[in-house]
Write a structure and sequence with these properties.
Layout: E1 4-7, E2 13-15, E3 21-24, H1 33-41, E4 52-57, E5 60-65, E6 74-78, E7 81-85, H2 88-94, H3 102-111, E8 125-126, E9 131-135, E10 141-145, H4 159-181, E11 186-189, H5 195-205, E12 211-217, H6 222-234, E13 237-242, H7 245-252, H8 255-264, H9 276-284, E14 293-294, H10 316-327, H11 341-353, H12 361-379, H13 383-388, E15 392-393, H14 400-407, H15 411-414, H16 418-432, H17 448-461, H18 463-477, H19 492-500, H20 505-514
Parallel strand pairs: 1-7, 11-12, 11-14, 12-13, 14-15
Antiparallel strand pairs: 2-3, 3-4, 4-5, 5-9, 6-7, 6-8, 9-10
Helix pairs in contact: 3-20, 4-14, 5-16, 18-19
Length: about 525
């Protein structure tokens, strides 16, 4: 009997004629055996761009996954044979039993993803980020990491020197992208923040020939006006997609919405719905080329939300608790992690991969857990949306050179986004001659002196937290990105009550998804 049954459904796979090696890349110019061989022969840390590589090694099957987990694979052992696929439905048809993993589902409800190599289906595993999985014919398997996001112990401490190093890294990554694009249209989702703006600046600096940007949101939103101004300053063609909650909700509860969910959840992640409707309009109205390459501005820059831990010599327990509290927040239950043994187990395992006792260990562990879990399984998994609509994509700001450069910066330069904001602003001003304006949530104007007095009084009485919560509830009920369109299965009064208790929009979505109330029947019952 053949030891492995391969069910690779993405059109972005290429393989050798002997079917001994398979290569997946998100830009469709890798279509010959020589390329497959050259990429698979390289060590994982030497491969550039985004990729997944599968190799037969005697009777074993080896799966290498890149740092981003750009295209994870699912695997399960059934009747003496490994089933390997990138499509949950294909696996479901051939895997026999299909039951919910209750522990994984509990974590998913509070985080929006499943941690480690577990999935929402018992007995089915998924390849982790930056890993090598080897499947053996007897049904056993091993997983080892080839990278664990270690910061340099001899870092760059000069901001000016770090500026130059980042310039060089961006030049290498974006130049390689332009070479691979071979003149195809490059499409930039442009927000009012830093990352997509920096990428737009670099495309301009390097003379990318065919660039168009787009922004989506409710008509008149501040982010749309800022993004339009950025595109005009850079001389980039730009358009916007208006989001209407009623139209989105109507479209979501159709076969098209169900099909999107089935193609993008990957057994491990909440489908990334934020730009689904915008992409629907773009594809149907032919607003970009059919073979365009979409370039999201996700970047290697990481903000540590627990920077106080870097300077307080915390215990392992304090670090683990901070990580758990950071990610298990979707239901507004800060202590929810105590009832999530799988989450605690994976945080402890992450510490074996990025030990706290190494130099810069706290910073490394905080960043690594974010990278291999939320970043890989929710943010990077959103690339499946572009693939669903038939577009290629690339993430030059997350390519190897940029990543390695960021890890080479000192703690003072990388613990927050201060250096990055200054750097992006300076590069934007150099190209456009203008100071950058960033999108911020609207606020009420008040003279400085009475404002300071009011804030002090509110902090003393807890009124600042109450006001923040009220503003948050109002924003989520009428979100600039029309998020309320995806929660129509929950009465508005209940939404407001749950938002007031700390539940987020994603928390409502994870509940609806697990309960198969988004118009699908994807998640198996308990």
């Amino acid at each position: 009997m053949e030891n492995f049954r391969m069910m690779l459904t993405s059109p972005l796979w290429t393989s050798t004629p002997t079917a001994s090696e398979w290569l997946w890349r998100p830009v469709r110019d890798w279509d010959n055996e020589d390329t497959v061989n050259s990429v698979s022969a390289a060590a994982p840390s030497d491969r550039r761009g985004q990729w997944t590589v599968v190799t037969r090694q005697g009777r074993d099957l080896r799966i290498d996954t890149d740092r981003l987990r750009s295209h994870h694979l699912l695997f399960t052992y059934v009747n003496g044979q490994w089933m390997v696929s990138d499509d949950p439905e294909s696996l479901r048809k051939h895997s026999g039993s299909w039951n919910r993993d209750a522990e994984a589902a509990d974590v998913f409800l509070h985080t929006g993803f499943v941690v480690g190599s577990r999935t929402l289906v018992s007995g089915v595993h998924a390849t982790p980020a930056a890993s090598t999985v080897v499947l053996h014919p007897d049904g056993t398997w091993t997983c080892s990491l080839w990278d664990s996001f270690g910061y340099s112990t001899n870092p760059i401490t000069s901001a000016a020197e770090f500026d130059e190093a980042f310039d060089h890294a961006l030049d290498l990554a974006v130049t390689r992208l332009l070479a691979h694009a071979e003149g195809r249209q490059l499409v930039l989702p442009l927000s009012g923040g830093l990352d997509s703006r920096l990428l737009a600046v670099w495309l301009k600096r390097l003379g990318a020939p065919r660039v168009i940007a787009y922004t989506y949101g409710k008509p008149g939103s501040r982010e749309i006006s800022i993004s339009r101004a950025v595109a005009q300053a850079l001389g980039i063609d730009w358009f916007s997609v208006d989001l209407d909650p009623s139209r989105i909700a109507q479209r979501w509860h159709t076969a098209a919405g169900a099909h999107f969910q089935g193609a993008t959840w990957g057994l491990t992640s909440l489908p990334h719905v934020q730009d689904w409707y915008a992409l629907t309009v773009i594809r149907e109205d032919h607003l970009v080329d059919d073979d365009a390459i979409i370039l999201p501005g996700h970047a290697a820059v990481r903000t540590l939300h627990d920077t106080g831990l870097l300077h307080s010599s915390p215990s392992n327990a304090q670090v683990f608790t901070a990580i758990a509290r950071r990610y298990a927040v979707l239901q507004g239950s800060p202590e929810a992690y105590r009832a999530l043994p799988l989450l605690r187990e994976e945080i402890r395992r992450a510490e074996t991969e990025a030990p706290l006792d190494r130099e810069r260990g706290v910073q490394g562990l905080l960043a690594w857990f974010n990278l291999r879990e939320r970043q890989a399984k929710y943010i990077n998994n959103s690339m499946k949306a572009y693939e669903f609509f038939g577009y290629d994509w690339a993430l030059p700001l997350l390519d190897s050179e940029v990543w390695d450069c960021w890890l080479n910066g000192s703690e003072e330069l990388t613990a927050n986004r201060d250096w990055y904001a200054r750097y992006t602003g300076a590069r934007y001003a150099c190209v456009t001659g203008q100071e950058q304006e960033l999108y911020r949530a609207p606020s009420v104007s008040m003279p400085a002196v009475p404002k300071r007095a009011l804030l002090a009084a509110m902090r003393a009485t807890g009124g600042d937290r109450l006001l923040s919560r009220v503003r948050s509830v109002r924003t989520m009920l009428d979100h600039p990105m029309a998020f309320e369109a995806f929660t129509e299965g929950i009465p508005r009064s209940e939404q407001a009550w749950r938002f007031a208790r700390g539940t987020t929009s994603l928390g409502l979505w994870t509940q609806l998804f697990l309960d198969n109330q988004w118009g699908t029947d994807l998640v198996p019952s308990s």
